[in-house]
From TrEMBL:
Keyword flag Ribonucleoprotein: no
UniProt protein name: S1 RNA-binding domain-containing protein
GO MF terms, alphabetically ordered: DNA-binding transcription factor activity; RNA binding
UniProt entry tagged with the keyword Zinc: no
An example Gene Ontology CC term for this record: cytosol
Amino acid sequence: MNREFLDALQQLALERGVTPEEVLEAFKEALRKAYIKRQKGYRKEEIDEGKGPEVDVYIDPQTGRIEMVEVRRVVEKVEDPDKEIALSEALQYDPEVQVGDEMEFPIDPEGLSRVAIQDLRQILTQRLKESERNRIYNEYKDKEGQELTGVVSRVDNRGNVFVELGRGEAYLPKGEQIPTERYYPGQRLKVFLKKVDRSAKGPSLLVSRAHEKLLEYLLKQEVPEIAE
């Protein structure tokens, strides 16, 4: 990899609205996966599960020079040949090595860059999604237990309501609704953010219209004298 290629990665960073460092880390991940897939024969799903050898990648941010190593832990008896090396074999490389040490074996990165480039955009897109999910989770986790204002985005056929709260969509189930109320898309609602969890699709926001703290807040807004 040369300087021109590094410049291309920086341009990609501008296009995706991320830092050059994030693109470089994504490219390192792509190189790791390319090596494990191409040289070790693992499928993408297996690599995502953590199967295959431990691979470290170093890229000089000035010259673009790539160094890759496969890392193995020295053990008495090998149980995972991808991640371990027997002491008897390790001693052939280093007579002073001991059980528990880690050994690095150089990898020739030649030819891997082209394969990695094909996966780079996909990996970068996935990282951006994960980063956005984390930002949204942290934002609303800090607001857990507060009253928020949102807009009803939809109501499903079971009567469950979904409320847009800025960058996140909240779930208002039947059990958290006020029985006498009717909800419709576009309606502005004051809700109580009851719980924030992580999920595979992103942050899960549970809100309530029946929570006692929200009812107390609404009552104070309706009857100012109560607040006093």
